[in-house]
Each structure stands twice: as C-alpha cells, then as structure tokens.
Amino acid sequence: MKEIRGDETQLRFGFDFGVGREAISKYENGRSKVPADISKSIVEKFDDPKFALAVQHQYTGTGPIWLNGPNVDLHRCSVRDKTIEELQEAIDAIKKTSLSKPKEAISSYEKQKMLDMIEEAVEAQTALANFIAVMTDHMEISYTGVWMDHYKYLQKVGFIK
User: Of 20, 38, 98, 106, whose CB has the highest number of CB atoms within 10 Å?
Assistant: First the structure.
C-alpha cells in the first residue's frame, strides 16, 4: 500500500477511502488487515497487479503471491522464460501422473506423485500470475480489465453464472 500511496500523505490517502491516517499506518505496517471494501476500492482506483495479488493472498492465505525476493528477476523476458519453464514442468508432471485409480486404491507412493504434480501446478500458477502482473504493468494494460473481460467470457460460454 505504501508503494501505491507514493508521496501522498497517509492522511490524504486515507481520506480518499474514508479512513484515518492511523488506519493507513496500521495497514502499511501490517498491524491490521486492509478491510475488503477498502482493498476493493484501492484495486479499482489504482489497478495495481501487485496490490491485487497481495489482497488475494491476504484474505485467503492461499493463491499466487507477488514474487519480490532477492533471487527474482522481474524483467518481462525473464518472467516469460520462467513461466514457460514452470508450465512445462507442470504439464510433464500432469502427463506422468495416473489419475485412473479410485482414491482408496492409491498407494502412498502414488499419492506422493500426485502431491508432486499438484506442487508443480501451484508453481506454474504462481509463475503465470506474476507474468500477467508484469506484462499488464509493463504494457499499461488494465489488470482488472483483463480479469473482467475473462469473467465475461466465462459467463458467455456457460462456465460461470
């Protein structure tokens, strides 16, 4: 949130969202969670993919997270290459894993292979989420707009109501 706020004061930033300076300080320092309605308003106003990923993670404790560690290269070409690598590993793991047996007939070895496959898929999902965030940011394409268009498509083809 501090990155989104930039040079604007906490007081002024909070005013835009109906909260006080103290609340903004608590959100930025991790002493309080940003309420869902305020998070949604910030995502809508700033359309920041990093913040959107952080909000998704904050509320569920699951899902992809913005990669910001010292070993991450966030140049779009590096992120693309890593995403392709992670996707290929997930595809390979999925292809190698038999899913035909009923749950009760799966050995502990086979269960471990399934867990490994799921972990590869999670790594691919994280890579894809970061790739989408990097590319929408770099190309100045609306992150939320991309998702809204996707949801409209899912509705159109009858995958969601």
Answer: 38
